[in-house]
Amino acid sequence: MTEQLQRILPTVQKPARYVGGEYGQVIKSKQEVDVRVAFCFPDTYEIGMSNIGMRILYGVMNDMPGVWCERVFTPWGDMEAQMRRHALPLYALESKDPVKEFDLIAFTVGYEMSYTNILNMLNLAGVPLRAKDRKGLKNLVFAGGACMYNPEPLADFLDFVSLGEGEEITKEILQLYRKAKLEDWEKEEFLRAVAQIPGVYVPSFYEPVYQEDGTLQAIVPNPSAPKTVLKRIVKDLDSAYYPTDTLVPSMEIVHDRTNVEVFRGCIRGCRFCQAGFCYRPVRAKSAQVLYHQAVASLESSGNDEITLSSLSTSDYKELDVFADKMLDYCIPRKIKLSLPSLRADNFSRELMLKLRKSGRSSLTFAPEAGTQRLRDAINKNVTEEEILTTCRIAFSGGWNAVKLYFMLGLPTETDEDVLGIAELVWKIIKEWKAYGSEKKRGLSINLSTAFFVPKPFTPFQWEAQITPEEYMRRVHLLQSAIKTKMVDYRYHGPELSRLEAVLARGDRRLGAVLEEAVKNGARLDSWEEYFRNDIWMEAFASCGLDPNFYACREFGKEEVFPWQTISIGLRREFFWHEREKAYQSLTTSDCRTQCAGCGANSLCPGGVCDA
Ligand code: SF4
Ligand code: SF4
Question: Lower CB density within 10 Å: C or N end of the chain?
Fold first, then answer.
């Protein structure tokens, strides 16, 4: 540890965030390494260490001989201030070497409101922000992750983008980089070559042309760049890399437990859900492989809790078999098994009893909308009866805490839909009064509403977001309809969600806004104590851009999207058709019941989805 760091650490909160040295971290000899990657997570240690994607790719890269991948997280404000005061540049946890000394600087980006952290981290590292200002092969900056399906707001800062699942493409990128370094290529030569790897997007090879009204006329690729770049997927999850010798954090993190990934993709098609479409098609692990990975991870980490993660775990075909086997392992060892992402429509009594045996205490559902009409419009194929039946089963089995997640501002939403949330909550309370078996402890309902954000690659990608003022009116309407202490109602802040919409559907002109906002102090925006809407609004004004142009405007049917160059394998016409069905409150079956012809089957072996 450097002397500066030793001086700083006692003065900051949670110094364990900044020291590394955890069980399972990878240390390599610098003499045996020819490619060094600073793998940056643009949020705090606690959030980044809970990210399964980061853990997988850390293992994938470090499994490559000659490659050393180290972790870098965003420092909290107090640490950043001290680092700047003591001129301590951003460093990697394993070696404590400055990020500036690394060959590649990789970001994994899962949330739009972390964009300012990316710029701030580059600045703290002493690395030029704009790709054009970084010369040579050293310090190439690239990014992957869910937000990179529209990387345009970050286009000026990234040398290239890795689209889709990273297990295979990351290795190909690093192998190419090694060759380029060995042969002393120019940066341009490397970018031309990396753009030929399927799934790699090089923003500087594309020129956006704008019309007078500010919309895009075209995005023109240069001759060495592909017209569209298709995301990568891992076809067989059973044989894909999975880190069972996992890093054990030395402080409490957000998800402090073993996490095994059950499957990727989702058979549902909720029309607001970017993850549901972007991770298509569904690919599952076999129960046998999953069990082996779960037990090996528990044994190597010593964790006393395991969670099965996926977008919709209760849709896992082998869930019953797997849960039984897993509970046989967990219960005698006092290990808690949790299943997040349950859907009300397939939550069985048996499953509920099994979970209760392993110590689960709260029931979580995301009906998203308060009326059946709106649930049909968003294709959340769950009925009120299913929700109430689930609650009835759970209450009679001794559950007395429910978490409910809804959205406000969904396309076609009316006041009746907003008030429908309160009505549904009342019906749940009535179920508890009638069937609850643990009345003494009372019922606790945590009700949360998020502000609908239109996202690329969803049927609602064309939709306007309602204004923050209108959102707050709906929040107050709902608040006024809930008059019981059993319900703790929280809502997401409107300004943050509007910015999320701006960045989600934004073009590369927003790079200037990001830079200006960071210069004026924006960072850690996803944290309430740091988010400053005024800084953002000033940045928009000084760049001559209107946030409502991106968030609150309905995009034209044929409009050129900023993310037009990128393909997730699904057809645009499919999304438009789904949007039209939303306006008629028509639902679409899940992939297991009937294929809706989205196009993702083209990514599957033999052209057939195994939903
Ligand atoms: S069930 Fe719906 S909301 Fe959940 S991941 Fe699947 S598509 Fe998204
Ligand atoms: S091609 Fe059909 S089965 Fe496959 S993801 Fe699309 S809708 Fe679902």
Answer: N
Nearest 5°: phi and psi at 331? -60, -50
Taking 60 as the threshold, does the pLDDT of residue 568 lie above it?
yes
Residues with CB under 6 A from ligand 2: 280-281, 591, 595-598, 600-601, 609, 611
**What is the distance in A from the centroid of ligand 2 to the CA of 589?**
10
Q: Report the share of the chain in percent with pLDDT over 90.
A: 78
**Element at 415 (helix H, strand E):** helix 415-435
User: Which stretch of 188-202, 278-292, 353-367, 493-507 has the lowest confidence by average pLDDT?
Assistant: 353-367
Three-class DSSP category at 230: strand
What 3-state class would DSSP assign to 374? helix
Domains 3-230 and 258-492+569-583 equal at CATH topology level: no
The edge-to-edge listing of strands for the beta sheet with 305-309 is 258-261, 305-309, 336-338
Local structure of residue 282 (DSSP, 8 states): P
Report CA(406)–ligand 2 centroid distance (Å): 26
Domain boundaries, the chain: 3-230, 258-492+569-583
Which residue in this structure is represented by tokens 């880190």?
243
Residues 194-242 pLDDT 10s: 999 999 999 999 999 999 999 999 999 999 899 999 999 999 999 999 8
* CA-nearest residue, atom 8 of ligand 1: 276
Q: Find the ligand nearest to 266 CA.
A: 1
pLDDT band for 355, please (50, 70, 90 cuts).
low
User: Which helix (H) or strand (E) is 272 found in, with range?
Assistant: none
Ligand 1 contact via 268 beta carbon (within 6 Å): yes
Asked whether 270 lines ligand 1 (CB < 6 A), one says yes
pLDDT for residue 565 = 98
Q: How far is the CA of 310 from the centre of ligand 2 (A)?
A: 18
What is the pTM for the complete model shown?
Answer: 0.94
Residue 508 C-alpha from the chain's centroid: 21
Q: Say what the pLDDT of residue 249 is.
A: 85
Atom of ligand 1 nearest to the CA of 368: 3
CA-267 nearest atom, ligand 1 = 6
- Cα 433 to ligand 2 centroid, rounded to whole Å: 42
CATH class entry, domain 3-230: alpha beta
For the chain, how many helices (H) and strands (E)?
20, 19
Fold of the domain spanning 258-492+569-583: pyruvate-formate lyase- activating enzyme (3.80.30)
In tens, the pLDDT along 93-130 reads: 999 999 999 999 999 999 999 999 999 999 999 999 99
Q: What is the arithmetic mean of pLDDT over 39-49? A: 96
CA of 384 to the centre of ligand 2 (A): 26
Q: Token match 């999304």: residue?
A: 575
Task: Please check whether residue 134 is in contact with residue 152, taking contact to mean a CB–CB distance below 8 angstroms.
Answer: no
